[in-house]
Design a protein that fits this description.
Blueprint lengths: L5 H13 L11 E7 L4 E9 L5 E8 L2 H12 L6 H4 L4 H8 L1 H6 L1 H4 L1 H16 L4
Antiparallel strand pairs: 1-2, 2-3
């Protein structure tokens, strides 16, 4: 496995310590909380879908740097996308953002935000009768 470079560490620390997406959204359409029982990481993602079907996302959470920073980095790359585009987000998309080396260090932590995002989408479609 490749060593994680200093630039990637700095990006993760910045997202962990100062994420612009880490806040409780006031007027959201759906929110879902999920966690990793084994390590205690928790993430709650808020989704607001605007009239043109673009999304705004935020999150709250606690846990390790990898779980919180990976969620922040993921949400940063999804702001303003169409709701339909979020359905196509998968592990490969996340790996392109955070790197395989980070993922291999802590797979459950790295994918927590992605897993909660999938649950948010499922709840959104259920509420809007679009199962």
């Amino acid at each position: 496995m490749d060593k994680i470079d200093q630039e990637k560490i700095e990006i993760f620390l910045e997202h962990y310590e100062n994420s612009p997406y880490k806040y409780e959204m006031e007027k959201y359409d759906v929110a879902v909380e999920g966690g990793n029982p084994g390590c205690g990481d928790v993430v709650k993602i808020y989704l607001k879908v605007k009239e043109d079907k673009t999304v705004e996302l935020s999150f709250e959470g606690s846990g390790c740097t990898i779980s919180q920073a990976s969620t922040s980095i993921l949400l940063e790359n999804l702001q303003g996308k169409k709701i339909e585009e979020l359905e196509k987000i998968d592990l490969n998309f996340l790996l392109d953002l955070i790197g395989k080396d980070v993922y291999l260090l802590r797979p459950n932590c790295s994918t927590l935000g992605l897993n909660v995002l999938k649950a948010v989408l499922k709840k959104y479609y259920k509420i809007n009768n679009q199962d």
